[in-house]
Structures are given as structure tokens and as C-alpha cells.
Amino acid sequence: MTPDRISAEGKFDAFENGEILLNKKKNHLPAMGWNSWNAFGSGNTEALTKIMADKFIELGLKDLGYEYVILDDGCYKDKRVDGKLSNDEVKFPSGFRALADYIHERGLKFGMYNDIGTNLCAGAEVGTCGHEDEDARSYIEWGVDFLKVDNCYYLWDNATFSNAENARYTFAPNIRAVKVGKQTIKCSEIGKNDAIFITGDRARCEGEFVTGIGTYDGTGPDASPVGPRSSELQIDFEASADGEVSVSVEYATAKKEGQGEWLQVSVDEKMFYDDFLEPTPSEDEFTWSKKIRITVRKGMNTLRLMNHRRQENTLNSYARLLRELNKANPDHDIIYSACEWGKTHPQNWAYKVCDSWRILNDITFRVGADGDPGHGAWVEDYTTSVTTQYNKAVIMDEFAGLDKGWNDPDMMMIGMNGLDMTQNKTHMVMWSMMNSPLMLGLDLRRVKKGDEIYNIITNKELIAINQDSLGIQAKRVYSSIGGERPDKEYIRDINRVDILCKPLSGNRFALSFINVSQEDKNETYSISINDLKKALGDKIGEGKSYSVKDVFTGDISENTTGVFEVRGLVACDNVTVIVAPMN
Questions:
Q1: Residues in CB range of 406: below 8 A, 6 or more apart
Q2: What's the predicted TM-score (pTM) here?
Q3: Angle of helix 132-142 relative to helix 96-105, nearest 10 degrees?
Q4: What is the CATH number for 226?
Q5: Residue 389: inside a domain, yes or no?
Q6: Chain centroid, CA 381 distance in Å
Q7: Same domain for 284 and 404?
Q8: 498-529 pLDDT, tens per residue?
Q9: Spatial contact of 377 and 364, defined as CB atoms under 8 Å apart
Q10: How far, in Å, are 56, 122, 218, 329, 501 from residue 226 at the CA level?
Q11: 463, 374, 404: which is closest to 62 by C-alpha?
């Protein structure tokens, strides 16, 4: 089985054109609700889900905008029945339609989970791949309002729980030389001959050949989300007339990260080859490909040797399910959440078909169970912490918006063990300012009206910031250890203070001073209205003075200088205010 042929609108060259596919609906604000995974892992049940739905009403969460109750992994039978998804009859004895009705009767919305691969991440052999039509009809019949779709056991990438040899699809072979017509250009000339060069920094020249032609794996925190995430080998050449010429490459294939078997060949944006090359006897043995005919125009042309299939295949797979949902019900308004862990840098393409997209692997692997709250962390080396997710999402504002969708740093860990109340409070601020989906992940039975957790997750000012009608993600306008572009620089060292600014409706804006560090900071941190306008332009209104409201205390003060400052921040704490210009 090989990947589908990708239509022009799903190609890498179309990622930046701003055009959505399959009539994806726009203007959804970030989703708010509860997901079962962090609280219960695969141990969620119908009874627990009903209790959570009832807690929405008891705690008043519904009235604050929390509306989605979402079943994560572990709710289906391990195998399909007559080709269809079906409920685990022990954990969900009444079936999914009955559970959806229970949730809908309370004015809430019902969400479910699946995977674009063959299996779910917990192992059940019920992924949507090859079953998109049946599954779409089931989700419509069950009254599903939200779909979280994962990326395990994916056929065409070396995804988690998949075969590492799938890199054969997602990387080009190593290339040592290229023939264009009668001219042979060696890759050893890179740096010496301006006509041959590598774009981006994923690929590199190793002596005589180029390796790594493809796209970074964004699953972990190593790769920045900003800037080119893919590399191509390009050759500029001049043609004396319009016509055809032949191209062949000297190559060596493998099935490993950085060296694959699939090559794409185009001239400028016109594709001429998009398929496997014949495998070579070993990864070190080079051979010449068959001739590939290309058309050229008189004058300068750019030959592109590349592999963007890591992103194109994944976009295509997510699009397949949306297409079938549209067929099953053209008027559906299902929120579609891509949970592919940032692997293929979905900030580049997911806006075309999805409402939100995960930016990294899970925020915690230490999920709870009935009676066990699970464990979260403020800082860890991998993705499993508040700060790892924040560090990446905070510079991704350019990719989010009402016309696109939302960066998703995963469901919140507020209320799990491992985070203190200061960290919980700042966690809520970060997700609210970044327009992240506000998905609670705790067992709601741990919450009582008026307690510390309740006061954090029901903070009306923070929810209003997240749900503001302008739908603009906050921009980082200052970092104490950053350079000249704090909104673009990927900073993983948490020993810092960040300042975020988020334009709001009514000519207002929110400011957050965030101590990302686990150490107290005694310095004074300030930002002026001129600095904010420089970063955000006319999205920031000016006044003769400013009304400043603290989102936690409710205190209102007047600022007459246009300089906003905070003197000292304890570890992991924040000061967040809503500012309104006054004339």
C-alpha cells in the first residue's frame, strides 16, 4: 500500500496560500471542555463520563463556556464489528448514542477519539485509515460534536508505535550528483558553485553527497516551529528555449530517518516525479536513476529535488476523514482536532482542514485512574511539562486565528499532582493568553465550588481573554534572556521572565508578566505603549491614560505614563492585567 496521489491543493507549495479545503468552517473560538485521558487514561467508563457531565452543571462550568465532554482512547472494542466501530460493552454498556443523548440533554456537547493510522495509540485495531466512510457515518449517527484524531500506527511515517522503516516515504535518497540535459553537477560543489544549494537547515552536505532531504520531526521539543522546517536540493540552470530536457540523479536509498526512497522532482512549482526510486543494494552504494523528463522555459529555471511527503501525506489523511464527514452530513459543525503531536509541523498545513492542532507529544505520560489524579510537571527534558509546551506555543502566534485555527499545547494539567497552585494559576494564564483550547484534564470530583482549583479554572477574566471575539493569540513582546525578536526566538531555558500582549475587543489588550523560572525574580520588568505598538501595530490602542484591571484580584488602577511594570515575581508566578485606553 502506498500513499494517495496528492492533489495540487494539498501540495507543499500550497501550504502558505491561506486557502482552506473541503469547506472547513472558520471562526470557531478555541474549544473549551473536558477530556478523559489525563484523568483516567484508557480506564474511562460510561459511568465516569456521566459523572463528569453532571459536574459541569453542578460546578457551573457550562455557564462559563466549558461545553465539550470528550471520550479519549479506550472506549471502543479492540476490533471492528462488521467493519464498524463499536462500544466496549463493559465500560460503555449503553452505547455511544445513548451517552451522547445524556450529554446533550444537559446542554453540553459530545466528543470522541480516533486515529489516522490502523490502530489507536493504546493498541485497538480500529484506526480510521481505510474506514473513513464507515467511521464518518457512525460519528454523525452518534451525534458527535468534537473529534480528536491521533497519529499512532500511521502507515506512511515513522510515527510512535509505527515502523521506523516508514522513513522510506518521508525522506529522499541521499544524492551525490544530478544530470540536467548534458550537464552533470556534483553535490560536492555546494558552497563553491552558486547554481547548486540546499534550502532550509534539515538537509546537509556530507562530503560528496546530500542527506536529510525532507522535513524535521517535530514530535519532541528540539525543532523550532518557526522558519523553514523542510530542506530541498535545488539547482538553477538556464535553458536556451522552451522545451523538454531529461534529469537523472545519482542516489543511494535507505529506510531510516534522513535517508529514504521517495523523491519529488519539480521545476519551480510544476511536479514531474513523485514516487519511489528503485532501492539501491545498500545505503552507501550509489546508482543513477532512470531519466525523468521535465519541461523548461527559456531563461532561468530552478530544479527542485525534495520530499515533502511527511506533511503532504498527513494533511491528506486528515482531509480524507473530513471529506467523509461532509458526505455523511454536509451541515455538520464538528470541531476537528488534529493530535499528531506536532510531528509534521501542522502549523504549516492543518488550518486547511482542522480547527486545532497539537504542537508536541503529550503534556504528561503519567495519567491518572479512578482515584489517582495522575502527575504533571512544571519542567521536564521532553514534552511532559507546562513549560516545554509553553516554550514552543508562545512563538506560534503567526499560525493561529479565526480564519485558521488554534495551536494546541495539549489539555491542561491543573488539579493533577506535581503542580502547586501558583503553577496551576500560571498554567491557566499561559493557555488563555495563547488562545489554546481550554481542555480540563482532571477528575472533576476533586473540585469544589470556591476551592483553589475551582477559582483558577472558573476565572471569568481569563476565560474571556481566551474567548475574546478578535481571536488573536498573544505575542511575546519581551523575554529577559531573548534577543531582538522575542516573538520568533525559540527559547528553552526557563530561567527567564516573559511579557505577553494579547489584543482584545473594545480597543483593549491583556498583558501578562510571567516568571517562567522556578526561582524568585526581584528585578523590575516594564513595557511601554510604544513598545507594544511597535510589536503589534494598530491592534494596540493609545489613550491619555489607561484603566488597568488585575485578572486575579479584580483591582482597577489608572496608569498615566503608558509604561506598565511589575517589580519582582515569585517563582512560576505571573501578573496579568487587562488594559483599556482612556481619553
A1: 30, 355, 356, 357, 400, 435, 436, 437, 473
A2: 0.97
A3: 40
A4: 2.60.120.260
A5: yes
A6: 19
A7: no
A8: 999 999 999 999 999 999 999 999 999 999 99
A9: yes
A10: 37, 31, 11, 36, 19
A11: 463
